[in-house]
Amino acid sequence: MPTYHPQLDEHGKAVLLKFPSKPTPLSSWHQADAIATVTPGAQLPSALNGIPLEQWLDVPHSREAWNKVEGQLDFDEPPFQVPKGKAAAAGVAIQEADGRIWLVAPSNGFAGYTTTLPKGRIDDKVNRQASAIREAYEEAGLKVKITGFLGDSERTQTFTRYYLAERVGGNPAYMGWESQAVHLVPCLNLATFLNHPNDQSLLTAILALEASKFIHSKKKSIDSPIADSRRILLLDLGTEGGAVRLFLEPNELGIFSYKLETHCSERYLFPDVDFPKIQKKKIDSVWRDTHPLVIDWAGALQLMDDTGWAWPVFSPEFVHPSIRISILNALKDRYSRFPHIRFEDWEQARTCYGGENNP
């Protein structure tokens, strides 16, 4: 029997759902590590994380009303420059109080998306934040408030400003005709759902924010703040020779690479190395610096200094054994803690050489 969306489309026509989604059990909504799915008109708990799941009744119906809608945030946004030939759009990443992210499943996989973030073109002279709030309602049935900036995304026809937001009301069972399901997805499962190429930069941005929260919750006591909150700390090692931190840091594209931050004597870190004269540092001086860790095509991990010299990190003759073992263990640990994050150099080496001998 054909399944139709209960909401008519913009032309007043019924929307046939060719491959209808299925809702998950009600218990999934109260499990922070579970994926929860609702379909149009399906039953939901009366409340989630202390906030009622009730239909938003006083929805704005005019341009003026939308521009004044509650939930907009007064903050300094980055410049929004739409490339020539692109249409301006706005979207939103809504995070539930339990950490899960709200996603929508476009009806019949529109435009090749199985799931994505709520997003739509800016029209009727409605401002960007109000447009994002409107899209959250129209596509997910949710009432949200903006909490910050996530990122900009350029697509074939649009240039979209994405905001961070949190749910303050609404009911996803009242999703508009453009969505055949609304999902609530834990961040560890987000890469499975937010898998369209156009969404990869947004996925990385969301995961980087989660990594930042992880860092602040697990931060150790060595006397030095982590300079970039988007870093993922893998190792925080205090020794008799100083301190060593191994972390991951995203570049401007959001792709992570390894970095090593040191605050110790060079002779302790590199006990058997005669540093070249170009390095302009006394061997026994105490220094503090941050160096990229580069993995070459042979799968060898190397430490790059500020003069361009590379030192093999895992070679016994170069690095103090305690530091080498700690780095190896930290690299192994990151696979269990952050299996969903993309790492450029490491993945290249594993792809090229199979990774059998890599940590």
Topology:
Elements (H helix, E strand, L loop, with lengths): L2 E2 L11 E2 L18 E3 L8 E2 L2 E2 L10 H5 L19 E9 L5 E6 L12 E3 L6 H13 L1 E13 L3 E13 L8 E7 L4 H4 L6 H19 L13 E8 L2 E9 L5 E10 H4 L16 E10 L5 E4 L5 E3 L8 H17 L6 H10 L6
Parallel strand pairs: 6-10
Antiparallel strand pairs: 1-2, 3-11, 4-5, 6-7, 6-8, 7-11, 9-10, 12-13, 13-14, 14-15, 15-16, 16-17
Give a quick precis of the structure.
20% of the residues lie in helices and 30% in strands. It is an alpha+beta fold and 359 residues long.
Overall geometric form: globular
CATH class of the largest domain: Alpha Beta
What pattern of helices and strands is seen along the backbone? Answer: EEEEEHEEEHEEEHHEEEHEEEHH
Beta-strand level of the residues, as a percent range? 25-35%
CATH architectural label of the largest domain: Alpha-Beta Complex
Task: Indicate the mean pLDDT.
Answer: 75
CATH-assigned homologous superfamily of the largest domain: Nucleoside Triphosphate Pyrophosphohydrolase
The structural class is alpha+beta
End-to-end distance:
53 Å
Please give the domain count.
Answer: 2
What's the story with the biggest beta sheet?
Answer: 7 strands, mixed
Low-confidence stretches: 218-229, 264-289, 294-301, 305-320, 340-359
Evaluate the radius of gyration: 24 Å
Q: How many individual helices?
A: 7
Helix content: 10-25%
**Beta-strand segment tally:** 17
CATH topology of the largest domain: Nucleoside Triphosphate Pyrophosphohydrolase
